[in-house]
Amino acid sequence: MSNNASFSAILGMKISDAKRPEPLPRGTYLLNITKVVSGKSPQKKTRFVQYLMQPVEAQEDVEGDVSSIADWQNRTLKSDKFYLVPNAAFRLASFLKTAGLDSSLGFEEAIPGAVNQQILGFVDIEESTFEDDKNEDGSTPTYNKITSYATVA
């Protein structure tokens, strides 16, 4: 579904029909890096890059049946924000090497070069920390967070 088609579909929905998606089960997934986005932190205006990824395949350690979740392979998961400052460059370098990029590359070439690479990511489930973010039944909502990465063998 194109973004325009999904936008039109959302505009035609009732607010009460909007449902929070169920998080993916905890475990390791083969992830395809689909996009790199850049931005600035709101307070200090520090530049960062962040990668968007889609799950391709659930690995053996995934807790539960991922196939019961509609469109699970169309989910977008986000990496951590990699701040572009000297003391944090090692984190981005580690991610890029894990994604299979040659460590002799400069960051300028390697950052966009990670797109379309595959990586293994451990996807965890965390509770929302926003005080006003509650499910209809009053419970605290959960979401997915990638907590670690590994190189695809």
Label this structure with key terms.
six-stranded antiparallel beta sheet; 17% helix; alpha+beta
Describe the overall structure.
This protein is an alpha+beta fold and 153 residues long. Helices cover 17% and strands 32% of the residues. The protein has helices at residues 3-11, 89-98, 107-113; strands spanning 27-40, 47-58, 77-78, 82-83, 118-127, 142-150. Strands 1, 2, 3, 4, 5 and 6 form a 6-stranded antiparallel sheet that branches.
Order of helices and strands: HEEEEHHEE
Our count of helices gives 3
Structural class: alpha+beta
Radius of gyration: 17 Å
Largest sheet: 6 strands, antiparallel
What proportion of the residues form beta strands (DSSP E)?
25-35%
Give the overall silhouette: globular
Question: TL;DR?
Answer:
The chain is an alpha+beta fold. Helix content is 17%, strand content 32%.
Q: Any chance you could write out the topology, listing elements then pairs?
A:
Elements: H1 3-11, E1 27-40, E2 47-58, E3 77-78, E4 82-83, H2 89-98, H3 107-113, E5 118-127, E6 142-150
Antiparallel strand pairs: 1-2, 1-5, 2-3, 2-4, 5-6
